[in-house]
Amino acid sequence: MHNEQKMKVNNEQQPTLWSQPQRADVGGASLPYNGTSGWSGTDTSKERAVTADKTGETSKRQQQVIEHLYRAHKDGLTWRGLSKITGWHHGQASGVLSVLHKEGRIARLLKRRDRCRIYVHLDHVGGRETDSQGRKHKCPECGHTF
């Protein structure tokens, strides 16, 4: 009996991918848009975003994305890949990816897969070229991108 108890303790102490905290765990939600996670412009979209932010759903989804990207290693995920894993619609998947990218918590590669941008965990960039977040505008006089 004592050996069985000892084995059980040893088995419980063995870390697994599902039980140990990921290195990606960095805390609360990123809310870069005036204290929210952002919305598309409609009243219903705003209501959904504010509710998700207040209830912790935004934080939960952001953490899930970081963990999925960590597990995806160097392959990363597109919004479509994330959607297939989570069941989220395009707006949910791309919205979370965009917010995390904007906040510098994940990276977006210049490379594309199936006409979609590829997002990777910061630990898995591996020296590949990444893109900054946001719209790119060129100055008509000097060509500087901002």
Describe this structure in words.
It is a single chain. With 146 residues, the protein is of the alpha+beta class. It has a domain at 54-146: Winged helix-like DNA-binding domain superfamily/Winged helix DNA-binding domain (Arc Repressor Mutant, subunit A), CATH 1.10.10.10. Helix content is 42%, strand content 11%. It contains 5 helices and 3 strands; from the N terminus they run H-H-H-H-H-E-E-E. The protein has helices spanning 2-13, 43-55, 57-72, 79-86, 90-102; strands at 106-113, 116-121, 130-131. The protein has a 3-stranded antiparallel β-sheet. Helix 4 crosses helix 5 (90-102). The model is unreliable at 1-27 (pLDDT under 50).
Key attributes of the depicted protein:
globular; 42% helix; alpha+beta; three-stranded antiparallel sheet; 146 residues
What can be said about this structure in brief?
This protein has 146 residues and is of the alpha+beta class. It contains five helices and three strands, in the order αααααβββ. The chain has a domain of 93 residues: Arc Repressor Mutant, subunit A (Orthogonal Bundle), CATH 1.10.10.10.
What is the topological layout?
Elements: H1 2-13, H2 43-55, H3 57-72, H4 79-86, H5 90-102, E1 106-113, E2 116-121, E3 130-131
Antiparallel strand pairs: 1-2, 1-3
Helix pairs in contact: 4-5
